[in-house]
Amino acid sequence: MAVEDKKSYQKSTALFKNAVLNIAISEINEFTELEAWYTQTKIGNKITGFTLHWSTDKQVAGATDKQISLLREIHDEVERRMFDYLALENSKNRDMARTYIIRIKDIDRQVNETLTSKQANEFIQEEKELYGYLQDLLENDGQERDTSVYYNWLEED
């Protein structure tokens, strides 16, 4: 950690724990799938060392508010335009639109507090793709594509 030659850390274990060790442990826990912690080794009242522990049993990161919001926005937009999709002239295209809408609704039912970040990303990609297909069906049917919804979520990865 490049702090072994710092006198301030050698004199104050509390400073070392707060400025270095606790920050490192917190970053490991936040940015990896490991769960890390430490125990102190003491002789009398003096801390003489630290033992680092880790486990791979940490739960996978949950979906972020941004991911959930994005999934809901796509779903809500499809729901808003649903009658346009279901009123397509071509019956084959109408059936395809129905299939896409049902899948988006299925995804929406799976959006809850147990959704992982990885699952959310996969759902976002799938919903964006399905939304694009729906828009293509509208365009092929001679309807104008709704460009009012083309903002960041169609470009985000």
UniProtKB/TrEMBL annotation:
<dbReference type="InterPro" id="IPR036390">
    <property type="entry name" value="WH_DNA-bd_sf"/>
</dbReference>
<protein>
    <submittedName>
        <fullName>RepB family plasmid replication initiator protein</fullName>
    </submittedName>
</protein>
<dbReference type="Pfam" id="PF21205">
    <property type="entry name" value="Rep3_C"/>
</dbReference>
<dbReference type="InterPro" id="IPR036388">
    <property type="entry name" value="WH-like_DNA-bd_sf"/>
</dbReference>
